[in-house]
Write a structure and sequence with these properties.
single chain, Outer Surface Protein A, domain 3, 2 domains, three-stranded antiparallel beta sheet, disordered N terminus
Length: about 300
């Protein structure tokens, strides 16, 4: 078996490659620049194969297998393209599968949470135009997705630090038929979080996000208590400041509104952090944790 037909290459040929949302491919002489937003992420040395490699990367929209995108390339170009796709997958710049269901598929938004912020979400989000079909406290019955032809987005809205609930919510979605899910919280009180839109294909997941939080925390041991609380757990919700509550719900509503639009916005798949005191909003990428017990190899 030749190098271009190694097991790794054959597996790569079967994927439906999709670049990170917001990516731009620019061919410049002997290199290809792969840009996400305003940041240069990769400059790839491609030599005489530059036009061919740029064409392959531009075709990485999640709707065609890589084998189809390589048709017409000579063996050297083909092998280079496979190596580049493998590398971009390892760097989480490229994923397998479409980012979202087709725009013509309607969405059903289901909200989980019994707090005042969740109630405000139920009142606010149905007024958004476009893709929102309905909101519901209850989970969708099994096989609803296939029966009614809609896509399911579940949103967990919190006002406390019950991270065990976040993990349980995340695991249910990974194991179910949900197309996407979102986490909105003002539990820290001094700030609010709106998670990336999490997809059931193309990780990371919410457990990846919490593992990153743990690594950055000056007191990571507290996550043990918050993620695995004793029984019975006593979480007292805190009422967020009005501006903080309004902003996090607006950001989440924008991410929901964008579900039926193409192309997807890169910021849909980033973490939004809103500071309660200054209302400063920061955007952070969230990368897959390969050791994540939820969606990785851990």
């Amino acid at each position: 078996m030749s190098e271009s037909q190694s097991p790794a290459s054959l597996a790569t040929l079967a994927i439906f490659p999709r670049l990170l949302p917001g990516s731009t491919v620019i061919a410049a002489e002997a290199v290809v620049h792969l840009i996400a937003g305003e940041d240069f992420r990769f400059t790839i040395q491609t030599g005489e194969a530059t036009p061919a490699i740029a064409a392959v990367l531009r075709g990485c929209q999640g709707d065609r297998p890589l084998a189809d995108l390589l048709v017409g390339l000579d063996p050297a170009q083909r092998e280079l393209a496979i190596r580049i796709v493998d590398r971009l997958r390892s760097e989480r710049m490229l994923f397998d599968g479409p980012p979202l269901p087709p725009p013509e598929v309607p969405w059903r938004i289901e909200i989980e949470g019994a707090n005042s912020l969740a109630q405000r979400a139920r009142e606010l989000w149905p007024s958004l135009s476009g893709v929102l079909c309905q909101t519901s406290v209850q989970s969708t019955p099994p096989n609803t997705l296939n029966q009614v032809g809609v896509s399911i987005m579940r949103v967990l809205v919190q006002q406390d630090l019950d991270l065990a609930q976040v993990l349980e919510f995340n695991r249910r979605q990974l194991a179910g038929e949900t197309d996407a899910w979102l986490w909105v919280t003002t539990g820290p009180l001094s700030r609010g979080y709106v998670s990336p839109v999490i997809l059931n294909r193309g990780r990371p997941c919410l457990e990846c996000l919490l593992r990153h939080f743990r690594r950055l925390s000056p007191a990571p041991q507290l996550y043990d208590a918050l993620e695995r609380p004793g029984e019975p757990a006593q979480f007292v919700p805190g009422e967020p400041a009005e501006p903080l509550a309004r902003i996090v719900l607006e950001i989440a509503g924008w991410k929901l509104r964008r579900l039926g639009q193409a192309p997807a916005a890169a910021s849909q798949f980033a973490l939004h952090v809103v500071e309660a005191e200054t209302l400063e909003t920061a955007l952070h990428p969230v990368w897959l944790d390969p050791t994540c017990p939820g969606c990785g190899d851990g």
